[in-house]
Amino acid sequence: GSVMEKVLQRRSLRMRNMQRAWQESPEGKKMLGFRKSLPAFKENERLLQAIAQNQVIVISGETGCGKTTQLPQYILESEIESGRGAFCSIICTQPRRISAMAVADRVSGERGGRPLHQTVGYKVRLEGMKGKNTHLLFCTSGILLRRLLSDRNLNGITHVFVDEIHERGMNEDFLLIVLKDLLPRRRDLRLVLMSATLNAELFSNYFGGAPTIHIPGFTYPVKAHFLEDVLEITGYKLTSFNQIDDYGQDKMWKTQKQLVPRKRKNQITALVEDALNKSSFESYSPRARDSLSCWTPDCIGFNLIEAVLCHICRKERPGAVLVFMTGWEDISCLRDQLKAHPLLGDPNRVLLLTCHGSMATSEQKLIFGRPPPNVRKVVLATNMAEASITINDVVFVVDCGKAKETSYDALNNTPCLLPSWISQASARQRRGRAGRVQPGECFHLYPRCVYHAFAEYQLPELLRTPLNSLCLQIKSLQVPSIGEFLSAALQPPEPLAVQNAIGFLTSIGALDDNENLTSLGKYLSILPVDPKLGKMLIMGAVFHCFDPVLTIVSGLSVRDPFLLPQDKKDLAGTAKSRFSAKDYSDHMALVRAYEGWKDAEREGSAYEYCWRNFLSAQTLQAIHSLRKQFNYILRDAGLVDADASINNKLSHNQSLVRAIICSGLFPGIASVVHRETSLSFKTMDDGQVLLYANSVNARYQTIPYPWLVFGEKVKVNTVFIRDSTGISDSILILFGGSLNHGVQAGHLRMLEGYIDFFMDPSLVDCYLKLKEELNELIQK
Ligand code: ADP
Ligand code: MG
């Protein structure tokens, strides 16, 4: 021990010298000056004291006051200054990978810009910059949970910060259960919870009355304009319901928007009508009143956003604009529309940027940077920019009032991904983003009375998403009963939702009938993907058809690379079907498109290839890098060989690849019902489903397979399935998990036994024999 102790002491001294040298350098002084101007700085001493005296504290303070970048740094600095720098190890979690990376980069810069992974580092899914000298680590909450699986006591960690707890993300709520359980075992561990809103009580109570500290913020006043004012200011006229046509190009997406729960919609429309009859509206000009009477929840069109942006760029003082949109699809559509605009698309006057979960690092830098003089920065963002990312020079905010959130219908066991109204808390938060550096203005694109109809806070994620991955992770913490464990949450999920998740995990073979992890389940819990896709990957590896499966899994975890431009839907559909060659499979089409792209890249014609085939080069690139990362993890876990030709011995075998797709996507299956002139599709439980318009299978009048397997079904008011692949009865029997729908039990037991066998090296011989048998069966 004492040798180690000495090494650490020496390193601590070095850290102190370096810190002091930086603080005394001219740039260091300048940076310190900035840091001292943040509201958090005044609380520095109080915070250190509270953290020393209490195991848990809860801190609230407005976005931008310096919670994330400063508080963990205060601890680090004071430990370094007291000569114990090398002994401390601080972890700070973020809900999103992009903010973990951005914050680490920022903090490292504030500390003299030494390369990330020295002192300050980050770790996010499949990526990281972290070394043995890292003493402050920013990571996603998911990463910390994963670490807890293998290191239940967080040995060596001295401080844990859980950030953005007000968002009530699923991983954060999960973390709190685990940490609460850990604290009595690790009396020396310090836990700091950070929230951007004033609901600290809730968390403090959860931890038995932990002390709370509020950092009084500084924000400048922000003037709120609601739709009625916006129409007045811009002179824009809402014409009719059909303005939805200019909002979004994706067909599915549009259908979803039209079908936003009718009840809610009618309620809100009634509210507007009611308000229009009230005298409060009499102060508005006839034009605004007239316009407003056409308002429906779907009216927030791209054209209205364009009009607001034009107004700001023409009439308002300098300052960046932040536009809150619902998701990547509408951000990219709006960007395309704005690029064609004479003023907004002129790069000499407007710097148009986007900010979403999958943006490139180079774009990230631009978002924080200053635009050239006389150029206005306009950032189209998802609600990611609501709290975890601070863009300093924002003076104007445009708020469409919606966010795409997953909701979960436990009764139908179907996730719904719908843009829905944000909460009042979110709306306030969005507005606040305009007041960072000077008084700002916020344009809410919905009437004031609608704002008052918003829920006060958003429902915690734990209560509105399927719990499949979560339950798998809970199980790998060696928890005896998932239900009991989850009942200790801040707000426990419905028992039915928990039952559904356990049922699902059992059906894919990750849990046995007694709710114990199987060997497959153990592997799945270390793979950072959805359990279904993880299973597909493992099966692809074991059956030596790794490459195509790797492409499919990567594609399904990124997004669809096939584009569907509004005005060229037919051409795009035809282009996609060219990749299908009677495969009756969207997944195979993806594989072919990806492989074609790789070939085109080698020949230097990738751009042309994408353009001709309606493919997104950016998405293909993302799939490409995810493939590499999955490959690496599976090699690390010993599941694939270093020699690619061994892994792909059977990749040419189409029915095998189909079988592996089925093994992953099961129980997502629908039977193909042939009618006289049309096809219909029925799932086991839900009855009728429709195919997404861009599916290759939507183009056929007959399909020579009795079943389609699909990855995702989305409930709108009918249920849609996205990508699908046709499969035969024998594939379903052999690879379709343990469903009891007329499937021969003997076959099933063989397959299940098989899964257990191959995880156990001592049974490799049995496994090889079984594999031969299975291969023979499929080749028939
Ligand atoms: P909080 O976590 O309380 O919302 P942060 O610690 O993230 O606040 O940010 C504090 C301040 O640091 C911000 O208001 C901003 O001025 C500055 N800042 C944060 N990140 C960056 C960045 N990447 N580039 C420039 N300034 C930044
Ligand atoms: Mg923060």
Bound ligand species: adenosine-5'-diphosphate, magnesium ion
Low-confidence spans: 240-263, 738-749, 755-767
The number of distinct helices, counting runs of at least 4 residues, comes to: 33
Secondary structure: number of strands: 23
- Main sheet: strand order: 4-3-5-2-6-7-1-8
Strand content: 15-25%
Briefly note the structural class of the backbone: alpha/beta
Radius of gyration: 27 Å
**Gap from first CA to last CA:** 64 Å
Averaged pLDDT: 83
| General shape | globular
Query: Helical proportion?
Result: 40-55%
How can the largest sheet be summarized?
8 strands, mixed
Structure description:
This protein is an alpha/beta fold. Helix content is 46%, strand content 15%. The site of magnesium ion has 4 residues, from helix 5.
